[in-house]
Amino acid sequence: MTNYKVADIGLAEQGRLKIEWAESRMPVMMSLRERYGRTQPLKGMRIAGCLHVTKETAVLIRTLAVAGAEISWSGCNPLSTQDDVAAALAAEGFPVYAWHGQNVQEFYWSIDKTLEFKPTLTLDDGADLIFTIHNKHPELAKNVIGGTEETTTGVHRLRAMGKDGKLLYPVIAVNDAETKWDFDNVYGTGQSSIDGIVRATNVLLAGKTFVVAGYGHCGRGVALRAKGMGCNVIATEVDSIQALKATLEGVRVMKMDEAAKVGDIFITATGMKDVIVKRHFESMKDGAIICNTGHYDCEINIKQLEEVAESKRTIRPSNEEYRMPNGNRIYLLAQGRLVNLAAAEGHPSEVMDMSFANQFLSMCYLARHGQGLAKDVHDIPGGQDDEVAMLKLSSMGISIDELTDEQLAYLNDYSAGT
Ligand code: ADE
Questions:
Q1: Using CA atoms, how far apart are residues 399 and 171, in angstroms rounded to an integer?
Q2: What pTM did the predictor assign?
Q3: If pLDDT is split at 50, 70 and 90, which confidence band does 59 have?
Q4: Per-residue buried b or exposed e for 76-105, using 16+ beta carbons within 10 Å of the residue's own CB
Q5: Which CATH number belongs to the domain containing residue 59 in this structure?
Q6: What's the domain count of the chain?
C-alpha cells in the first residue's frame, strides 16, 4: 500500500537532483542538519506540514526527519507543487500528498491525509492546516504541542484568532523573524515574482510601466527588482507611511483607478481582496498583463474578469488571454495565484535557507518548550534571528566586528554628551 499521492512517481530521480542542487545552496540548513542530527531534538514528534512542495521545502523536510521527526506533508497552494520534488520525497518514504493542479476538494483531501497520523506539531504557510484542525478536527488539537506559520497573511489571521481566544494551541510567527521577512519577503518575492512574469510571458521589462499594488515588504521587493530591470514603477497603497516610503524611494504613487489606465504589467502584493476589479479591467490598455504574488487568489477579482470578458483562451503555460468588449486583450498569469510559485519555482534556495532555518529552529523550540506556552501567537525565540544571521554570514565567509566592553558601557552611559 502506498502512503503518498503524487502526480508521477517516475519523476523521482529528476526531483532528487533538484533537491541536491537546493542543498548545495542552503548551507545554514545543512549545518543545522549536521548539528541536530546528532542531538535528535525532534525525536518522538509527528510533524504535519502544509507548505509549498518545492526543492527548498524538501531540504526542510529531510532536515526535520534527520533531527528525529516523523513527517506527513501537503502543499499549501493548488498550483505550487513541483511534481518531480513531490515524487522524490515520496520515493524516499515521506508521506506526501501533493500534485500540481489540484482542485479545491483535492487540496483539502490532502490536508486531511496528513492529519491521519495525529500530529504533535504543525507547520503552515497560509494557515490552512491550522484552520482545518480548528474547524474540522478540533479533537486533534489536544495532541498538538504547537505550530508555526510562514507567511504574513497567515500570521494576520492567526493573531486575530489568538486575540479572540480561539487558538487551541500556541503558534510561532516565523514570518515575523527579521531573518525571514527582511530577506525572503523582499529579495525572495522580488526576484521570484519577476521570474514568474518572465517565464509566463518572456516580455521585455525595460521601458514598461509596472504597477505594484501594495508597498509592503513583498511589493517593495518586486518594485526594486522591476526598477532595476528598467521599468517605470508605480505603486498603489492604502497606507500613508508605505506610500511615503515608496515616494522617497523614487516610485510614483497613485490610486489604482489612475494606474489601471497607464500600466503595462500589474502585480498585486497586498494580502487584500478586490484590489483589481471590473472598472480597472475596463480601463486597461490593450495587452495589459496582470498577476498576483499574494498568498490567496482573491486580490484580482477573476470572477468579474470572467463575467466581463467576451472570450478567453490559453496563449501559453500560465498565461490566459481575456478579450474585452472593446477589443482590448488582458493577459492573466497563473490564474491569479502566486505567480512566483505557479509560473516559476518560488524563492531561490539561498533565501529559503534562512526562512527554513527559522522554521526548523522554531519546531525544535516548540518540541522542548511548547507545553508551557500560552495558546496565542508568539514571536520566534529570543536570539534565534541572530543565530540564523550569523550562520548565514559565516557560510558566506563574512565576519563582523564586536563591541568592546568600553563601547558597551558607552551605549548605556546617559551622562555622556557633546
Ligand atoms: N515560498 C516562496 N518560495 C518558496 C520556495 N522556494 N519554497 C517553499 N516556499 C516558498
A1: 33
A2: 0.96
A3: very high
A4: bbbbbbbbbbbbbbbbbebbbbbbbebeee
A5: 3.40.50.1480
A6: 2
Q: Which of 59, 194, 351, 352 for a ligand 1 pocket mutation test, highest count of atoms within 8 Å of Cβ?
A: 352
User: What CATH code is carried by the domain that includes residue 246?
Assistant: 3.40.50.720
First-residue to last-residue Cα distance in the chain: 76
Kindly state whether residues 21 and 161 are assigned to the same domain: yes
> What pLDDT band is residue 202 in, cutting at 50, 70 and 90?
very high
Q: Judge whether residue 1 has pLDDT over 70.
A: no
56 lines ligand 1 (CB under 6 A): yes
Confidence band of 89 (pLDDT split at 50, 70, 90) = very high
pLDDT reading at 417 higher than 80: no
346 lines ligand 1 (CB under 6 A): yes
Indicate whether 193 and 170 sit together in one domain.
no
Q: Which residues contact 240 (CB under 8 A, 6 or more apart)?
A: none
* Cβ–Cβ under 8 Å, residues 281 and 324: yes
What distance separates the 2 farthest-apart alpha carbons in the chain? 76
The finding on whether 259 has its CB within 6 A of some atom of ligand 1 is no
Print the domain residue range for 286: 187-342
What average pLDDT does this structure show over 145-164?
Answer: 95
- Average pLDDT in the chain: 97
Ligand 1 centre from 402 Cα, in Å? 33
Structural contact between residues 351 and 388, judged by C-beta atoms closer than 8 angstroms: no
Position in ligand 1 atom list of the atom nearest CA 54: 7
| 397 CA distance to ligand 1 middle (Å) | 25
> Within this chain, do residues 140 and 200 fall inside the same structural domain, yes or no?
no
Grid coordinates of 315: 496563449
Q: How far is the CA of 35 from the centre of ligand 1 (A)?
A: 24
Residues 390 and 248 in one domain: no
Please give the distance, rounded to the nearest whole angstrom, from the Cα atom of residue 346 to the centre of ligand 1: 5
Whether residues 44 and 163 share a domain: the answer is: yes
Q: Express as a percent the part of the chain with pLDDT over 90.
A: 97
Q: Is residue 289, in this structure, part of any structural domain at all?
A: yes
238 CA to centre of ligand 1 in angstroms: 27
- Indicate whether residue 347 lines ligand 1 (CB < 6 A): yes
Residue 404 falls inside a structural domain:
no
Q: Are residues 381 and 278 part of one domain?
A: no
Do 17 and 59 belong together in one domain?
Answer: yes
